[in-house]
Write a structure and sequence with these properties.
The complex is a heterotrimer of chains A (288), B (112) and C (289).
Chain A: E1 2-6, H1 14-25, E2 31-35, E3 50-62, H2 74-78, E4 84-87, E5 90-93, H3 103-107, E6 115-128, E7 131-138, H4 146-159, E8 165-169, H5 176-182, E9 187-192, H6 196-211, E10 216-223, H7 229-237, E11 241-246, H8 249-256, H9 266-287
Parallel strand pairs in A: 1-8, 1-9, 2-7, 2-8, 9-10, 10-11
Antiparallel strand pairs in A: 3-6, 4-5, 6-7
Chain B: E1 2-7, E2 25-30, E3 35-40, H1 51-62, E4 66-68, H2 75-84, E5 87-90, H3 97-105, E6 110-111
Parallel strand pairs in B: 1-4, 4-5
Antiparallel strand pairs in B: 1-2, 2-3, 5-6
Helix pairs in contact in B: 1-2
Chain C: E1 2-7, H1 15-26, E2 31-34, H2 43-46, E3 52-64, H3 74-78, E4 86-87, E5 90-91, H4 103-107, E6 113-127, E7 133-139, H5 147-163, E8 168-172, H6 179-185, E9 190-195, H7 199-215, E10 218-224, H8 230-242, E11 246-251, H9 256-262, H10 267-270, H11 274-287
The chains are: A alpha/beta (288), B alpha/beta (112), C alpha/beta (289).
């Protein structure tokens, strides 16, 4: 059971929902929370556990072997990303720009550019009771988030049972990293705010998720602060609203300290219960 | 000495381009010949990524002794320029080419 | 002409609402550039007329000419992105997986594959409700924001500002710490960092300032919702002074912040109290720096 938690815009409460929902579900179920927002992983500020495993993550990039190179220049010509250039009698490689397409390496007539692993980030695996928490963090300067997201998902695939509930805290936006983070999910939860910005960014996210042909529902955060446009939109588009998390200054204060909120605010706990029931029902339907 | 400038235009009174990778023109002033030559870099606008190294590569071919620019090259471009051994001066993003040159002559620019 | 770029490493700090207020206070003689193209929301407050639009191309996408294809499968073999599945006996490009590396086109023995420029969105030059010019953009699905699009939006804005001899360009910067934000910072005279006093807010402020430092641009900081966690606010202010960042102002937590947005207005149009005053003071301070 894989559930991606996403939002068109940053700062709508995606991480707040992911961490609180994961902790709440883990009171009775086995849960894995995965932070796939590898550029800005923030879930770890709210979930503390024992570090059970850590590993370095690598991507494949070409490495220039001077002795083998005939300086023919084919490599810089085939690279669409300018990840390698020829400078006089030298070839320079920029691993951060490399997409790992292997074209330069495999089209090099003298095999002077073998693909070699280069570190792009770290994966950490924590455990606290029923809750496993896995986060990946991209090294500063790395521009490609997608390979790290994809490898993190492989790690989850390998180490957890199929029917364990898996929550993926996805990157914001509607571009490649979000698509990578949500494309294997059984269900997507879109988090939004009941405001014009929230609605605008939600509608972009909905277009993206529909393009991926995913089942999805909406959670409205800071409910009460804005207007009814998001609700009207969801009705019109026949999108289920899983929960309405009330606006609360106290929630913002708890969040600012890096604390979980659901135990302090009963109304929020109730909304998490709604989401939980929805998810468990989905799981049953999936097994049948 | 050959001095390179990142520029928005092609004349002494053209404005400097503060950007390195996406600079519109590269101007080279050859002090001995007292000659200002222009290299059009506008094709770089078509590139989504990797503009810095690409412009640096062009500069490598032009091989000036000194580069005068605004913000300074980014990490990737800086690595390329390091190989060329040219001296880089920054902080001349908002002036004309002429003013940037004068500032350099009076040691008024910061070394990168 | 002074170019002021407003950024925040983290989403949801109120950056766009604050930027739109400055744009409103700047009146008709400024130029606005919305470089936050992933979540381009400023138009919801400034109500531009979307008068001039232009298609925007970035990157490439492979395309297979089925008449020329002999189904040898070499393209699918070399593709590292699993972007060429076989559907109903035909090799098809999956546009969401294709990275546009061009490897398949290069090795196709029958030259059936070409690389096409990818239309990823539109850019606009519009007049806002206060009469100023805004340059903004809209990205298509799955399209990546890039330095290229940001550079285009900023360039347009600069050219207009030069032509009109505008005093200020106000730029709503891109999020994150990658290529787009680098492009939004490039050429700026002053950077305004918008943050909030939370564990995540401070964490992301530090990350994005590392980037600003590289550009050696003078920076100031606005702490939004400063009273939500006064301890963190204090910690943030200490960080600012240690880095020589100008502490521009504190903005209180106030639901009018959101209510203005709900009414499609900038804060300074909607609010009549402290909130409005703190924004006017912030803008005056930035102008006079």
């Amino acid at each position: 059971m894989k559930i991606a938690i996403a939002s068109g815009k940053g700062g709508t409460g995606k991480t707040t929902l992911s961490t609180n929902l994961a902790a709440y579900l883990a009171e009775h179920e086995e849960v894995v929370l995965v932070d796939l927002d590898v550029e800005e992983p923030n879930s770890g500020l709210f979930i503390k556990g024992d570090l059970v495993h850590t590993e370095e993550k690598f991507k494949m990039t070409p490495e220039w072997i001077e002795d083998k190179c005939s300086l023919c220049g084919i490599c810089q010509e085939v690279c669409n990303f300018h990840a390698l250039i020829q400078l006089g009698t030298q070839i320079m490689v920029f691993p951060e720009l490399c997409h790992g397409c292997y074209a330069c390496s495999e089209l090099c007539p003298t095999n002077a550019l073998p693909m070699t692993p280069k570190k792009m980030g770290n994966l950490k695996h924590f455990q606290i009771g029923n809750l496993s928490f896995v986060e990946s963090r991209l090294d500063i300067g790395e521009e490609q988030a997608v390979p790290l997201i994809s490898q993190t998902q492989k790690y989850i695939e390998k180490h957890f049972q199929k029917n364990t509930i898996k929550l993926f805290d996805s990157p914001p936006g509607t571009s490649c990293p979000v698509i990578e983070a949500t494309k294997d999910a059984n269900f997507v939860i879109l988090v939004t705010e009941p405001t014009p910005f929230g609605l605008h960014d939600l509608s972009l996210a909905v277009d993206t998720i529909r393009e991926l042909k995913k089942n999805f529902g909406v959670v409205i955060n800071r409910f009460g602060i804005g207007n009814n446009d998001v609700i009207d939109y969801c009705k019109k588009e026949k999108i289920p609203i899983l929960a309405k998390i009330p606006n609360s200054r106290k929630a913002a204060e708890l969040y600012s300290h890096g604390a979980l909120i659901y135990n302090e605010i009963p109304e929020i706990k109730q909304q998490l219960e709604n989401i939980k029931n929805y998810i468990l029902k989905l799981g049953e339907r999936g097994r049948r | 000495m050959k001095i390179a400038f990142t520029a928005k235009g092609t004349k002494w009174d053209s404005m400097m381009d503060p950007r390195f990778g996406r600079t519109k023109f590269i101007l080279i002033y050859d002090e001995e010949k007292d000659e200002l030559t222009t290299f059009d870099n506008r094709s770089i606008e078509g590139e989504a990524h990797g503009a810095g190294p690409k412009t640096a590569q062009k500069l490598f071919e032009l091989n000036p002794d000194i580069l005068i620019t605004g913000n300074g090259p980014g990490g990737n471009a800086a690595t390329v320029l390091e190989k060329t051994g040219m001296e880089i001066y920054i902080g001349a993003g908002e002036t004309t080419i002429k003013e940037a040159f004068q500032a350099y002559k009076k040691d008024g620019l910061k070394k990168f | 002409m002074k170019e002021i770029v407003i950024i925040s490493g983290k989403g949801g700090t109120g950056k766009t609402s604050i930027t739109a207020s400055f744009a409103y206070l700047g009146g008709k003689d400024i130029v606005v550039a919305d470089c936050d193209v992933d979540a381009a929301d400023m138009h919801l407050l400034l109500k531009p007329d979307f008068k001039i639009s232009e298609d925007f191309y970035s990157g490439e996408l492979a395309k297979i000419d089925q008449d020329k294809c002999n189904s040898c499968g070499m393209c699918a073999d070399v593709c590292r992105f699993d972007a060429i599945p076989v559907i109903n006996g035909q090799y098809i490009i999956d546009p969401l997986s294709c990275e546009g590396c061009g490897y398949c086109a290069r090795i196709c023995p029958t030259e059936a594959i070409t690389n096409e420029s990818l239309n990823v969105g539109k850019s606009y030059t519009s007049t806002t409700k206060v009469g100023s010019i805004i340059v903004h953009a809209k990205l298509g699905i799955g399209a990546d924001n890039s330095g290229k699009l940001v550079a285009k939006v900023k360039n347009e804005a600069k050219q207009i500002a030069e032509k009109n001899s505008s005093d200020y360009i106000i730029v709503d910067g891109s999020p994150g710490i990658g290529c787009p934000v680098v492009s939004s910072l490039s050429g700026a005279n002053f950077v305004v960092l918008v943050t909030e006093p939370s564990v995540a807010g401070l964490h992301d402020l530090k990350r994005v300032y590392e980037l600003v430092k590289k550009f050696k641009i003078k920076a100031g900081c606005i702490i939004n919702k400063y009273d939500i966690n006064t301890e963190k606010s204090k910690e943030t202010i200490e960080y600012l002074s240690s880095e020589n960042i100008i502490h521009i102002s504190n903005i209180p937590y106030d639901e009018n912040f959101t209510k203005a947005m709900v009414n499609g207005k900038t804060i300074v149009e909607h609010d009549q109290g402290n909130l409005k005053n703190s924004l006017i003071e912030s803008w005056e301070k930035i102008k006079n720096l």
